[in-house]
């Protein structure tokens, strides 16, 4: 499903983030940039050791912030690593931190002249954020950003299964 936000495209697809041909893909990292399971494990496996080498030099990334490395062997030229919040019930600022992770990633893309970017559904795996709530925050944050930033021409959400896709589809409608 695709919508236009001014002249930019926002789309949701079911698929694998590591296979995307956008200029950048976003990693659901941890604050130590140490690698892990889920999206993080898949990106480092597919992209090769160069990405971890660059992560080690950067050293870390606070929750809600983002850093950038090359894409190693991936089709995407860059990986933007961001850190979503761990979900503790929703009363510890999780919504704002999740929005910050999307915004920081988009801001970094704008600064680097990256115009096409693919996101996974941050925080909705190991970090336990309820998918429906996360979908609403993710889409609203990206739509608000696109309204003021025509330099980003494509944002693609890559959802890993039909349930995740359905949650984003409902939220987008
Ligand atoms: N492509 C797209 N989405 C995926 C893929 C993939 N290849 N693999 C999993 N997902 P998670 P988090 C979905 O756990 O919750 C790591 O260990 C998955 O179904 O990757 O932000 C890090 O090192 C889920 O909906 O990220 C951190 O320690 C979503 O991506 C921690 O997990 C995010 O799941 C980050 O946890």
Task: Report on the architecture of this protein.
The protein has 173 residues and is an alpha/beta fold. It has one domain: 3-Layer(aba) Sandwich (Leucine Aminopeptidase, subunit E, domain 1), CATH 3.40.220.10. The protein has five helices and seven strands, in the order βββααββαβαβα. The protein has a seven-stranded mixed β-sheet with strand order 1-2-7-6-3-5-4, sandwiched between helices. Helix 3 packs parallel to helix 4 and helix 4 packs across helix 5. The protein is globular and about 40 Å long. The model has no long low-confidence stretch (mean pLDDT 98). It binds ligand AR6.
Give the topology:
Blueprint: E1 2-5, E2 8-14, E3 24-28, H1 38-47, H2 49-58, E4 66-70, E5 78-82, H3 94-111, E6 116-119, H4 131-148, E7 154-159, H5 162-172
Parallel strand pairs: 2-7, 3-5, 3-6, 6-7
Antiparallel strand pairs: 1-2, 4-5
Helix pairs in contact: 3-4, 4-5
This protein binds ligand AR6.
Unreliable spans? none
Radius of gyration: 14 Å
CATH topology: Leucine Aminopeptidase, subunit E, domain 1
User: What is the spatial order of strands in the main beta sheet?
Assistant: 1-2-7-6-3-5-4
Instruction: Please tell me the CATH architecture by its name.
Output: 3-Layer(aba) Sandwich
The CATH class turns out to be Alpha Beta
How far apart the termini lie comes to: 10 Å
- Name the overall outline: globular
* Largest beta-sheet details: 7 strands, mixed
Small ligands present: ligand AR6
The ordered string of helix (H) and strand (E) elements is: EEEHHEEHEHEH
